[in-house]
Amino acid sequence: MVITGLQIHKLLPGTNCKECGSNTCLAFAMKLAAKKTELSQCPYASDEAKTILGAAVEPPVKGLSLGPDGALKIGEDTVLYRHEKTFVHPTLIAVNINDTDPEEVIDFTLESIAAYKMERVGEILSIDMVSITHVHHNSGRFLSLAQKAWEKTRKPLVLCSTDPETLAMAARKLKGSNSVISAATPETANELRLIAVENGHALAVTAPDLNELVTLTSRLRKSGFSNILLQFETFSLAEQFQLNSIARQAALKDSVKSLGYPGLCFVKSTGDFLDDSVTALQEICKYGGICVLPFFDPAQLATLMTLRQNIFTDPQKPIQVEPKVYSIGDPTETSPVFITTNFSLTYFIVSGEIENSGTSAWLVVPECEGMSVLTAWAAGKFSGSSIAKFIKEIGLEERIKTREIVIPGYVAQISGELEESLPGWKVTVGPQEAADIEAFVKARCK
Ligand code: SF4
């Protein structure tokens, strides 16, 4: 059901109290119709409005919560392209283990998954889920692998089998883990839906083609079940891309509810690192909910985690670090002073290169609204006078005796203004690229 801004307006209190952040109820209604806000922002919405609008303004892609505490979220997207607003929840990354894998491979993979951590721009990135696949002819190995994977990692699982009875047994064993059952077909959907509901899991659904999949999800939806993921049967990268795009377009542009669910995709190992990585990269960019990798490969994970972090940052809110003076190493009151902006990526690259140089230093990071050096300078946020003002405000001159500051080479033009604004300080123009900081520091130490 598409509901217009004017229809929504009739259901709102009409007091124009502004508590929702909009100047009028009409403005709020228009935003709500454009899916740019949520009804919960209006504290005075009536129960009737909540009931009517709740169904009408629910995100075109259903949100799912996974994991024992429901902390892993997928879905809830409202735009096709990241630059239109933002992509909401990052694609979850899972690593697969087959129940026919040798015991030592299983143990190594589970330990690696549990221990995997990658720090990038201040965030700790980790593997979200474990996928286990039923390959062996009987179900015993699969069930004990499910138990083991859950006990060793405490991460929700993707339970993958073509046998509904085995899936049902595994789902019961993992009750409370809020995992994913993969996959229900048109023939097994009714049975597996009940298992998913009873044990609190999500259900991936698959069908030979898109029409049958739409029929299947519509049927489940009519039964009141919506904890669904779409699992397409595809045979090429192009086909997967096409189906992901069709489903997302249909959900967002044509309000096709039966395709408004996050997707589950298994990357099949081709033996080629690049081919496998490209399949996973595509899922992260367009529009995977869960991407299952065929095995644990730290090089591949580093690539995917980096891409995922970049794709799922809000383009309207650059990642920032707190404006302040950071100590790198163990600086004293005569240690060198560097300056950069508070764009996270810039900060972590510069601080990392100072650390690599082996010197201890102070790194001054003024408020630059999360912009990089040249952007901040062009916007007037990284000028000689603003830097001097920040240094005075934080009382740096009272804390250290150093009176030389190294500025990024890209903004050499601010050195005169900075020296004028900071009497008694010498301004040194450092390298343009952070990668040259180490050589710069070593040359000064000679
Ligand atoms: Fe209207 Fe509710 Fe917003 Fe107040 S908070 S202006 S009542 S929509």
State the main characteristics:
alpha/beta, 3-methyladenine DNA Glycosylase II, Chain A, domain 3, TIM Barrel, Rossmann fold, 17 helices, 17 strands, binds iron/sulfur cluster
Descriptive report:
By secondary structure, the protein is an alpha/beta fold. It folds into three domains: 5-57, 3-methyladenine DNA Glycosylase II, Chain A, domain 3; 64-312, Dihydropteroate synthase-like (TIM Barrel, Alpha-Beta Barrel), CATH 3.20.20.20; 324-445, Rossmann fold, CATH 3.40.50.11600. The chain is built from 17 helices and 17 strands. An eight-stranded parallel sheet has the order 10-9-8-7-6-3-12-11. α6 (164-173) links the parallel β7 (157-160) and β8 (180-184). The chain is globular, with a radius of gyration of 27 Å. It starts with a helix and ends with a helix. The structure holds iron/sulfur cluster (SF4). Residues 12-13, 15-20, 22, 25, 28, 42, 44 line the site of iron/sulfur cluster (SF4).
